[in-house]
């Protein structure tokens, strides 16, 4: 991929402290960066942020888009392997942070918001860094196997 333009106000571009407010790093992938979403009312919720600072899917080349969606699917397979959800929701909004990213949100039958769309950031379920790291490590292992 070509050299990327970064927005100094964008958490996904700058990573570090800005993204740490809501995401725990899992790994760098070919097309972007994977994070455990800190709000874990849906156990296993993650975010895959594209490495380019673009707002829309149409800002990617066909190849970039196809590679990104292949990795969204790979992450979803890892989430299924590790957390065994009954359903996974996918969300790409970007109304406040204009950086292309996908929320990959496991849902569990009988669990919170089963049968409906997920709330973006309820703040109800926050974990310790050790718990986030355990999830991240389980996902890193699963990504090697899927």
From TrEMBL:
Q: What class of enzyme is it?
A: transferase
Give one Pfam family: HIT
Q: Where would I find the HIT domain in this sequence?
A: 11-114
User: Which EC numbers does the record give?
Assistant: 2.7.7.53
On the tree of life, the source organism's domain of life is: Bacteria
Query: GO MF annotations for this entry?
Result: ATP:ADP adenylyltransferase activity
Query: What is an annotated GO biological process for this record, any one?
Result: nucleotide metabolic process
The protein's matches in InterPro entries, at most eight in alphabetical order, are given as: Histidine_triad_HIT, HIT-like, HIT-like_sf
Instruction: Report the protein name in the record.
Output: AP-4-A phosphorylase
Entry keyword Nucleotidyltransferase: yes
């Amino acid at each position: 991929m070509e050299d990327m333009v970064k927005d100094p106000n964008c958490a996904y571009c700058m990573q570090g402290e800005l993204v740490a407010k809501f995401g725990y790093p899992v790994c760098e992938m070919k097309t972007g960066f994977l994070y455990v979403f800190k709000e874990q009312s849906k156990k296993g919720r993650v975010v895959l942020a594209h490495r380019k600072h673009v707002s829309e899917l149409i800002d990617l080349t066909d190849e970039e888009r196809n590679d990104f969606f292949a990795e969204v699917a790979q992450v979803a397979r890892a989430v299924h392997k590790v957390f065994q959800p009954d359903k996974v929701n996918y969300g790409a909004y970007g109304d406040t942070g204009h950086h292309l990213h996908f929320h990959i949100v496991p849902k569990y039958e009988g669990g919170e918001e089963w049968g409906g769309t997920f709330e973006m950031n309820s703040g109800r379920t926050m974990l310790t860094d050790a718990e986030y790291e355990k999830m991240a490590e389980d996902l890193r292992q699963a990504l090697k196997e899927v």
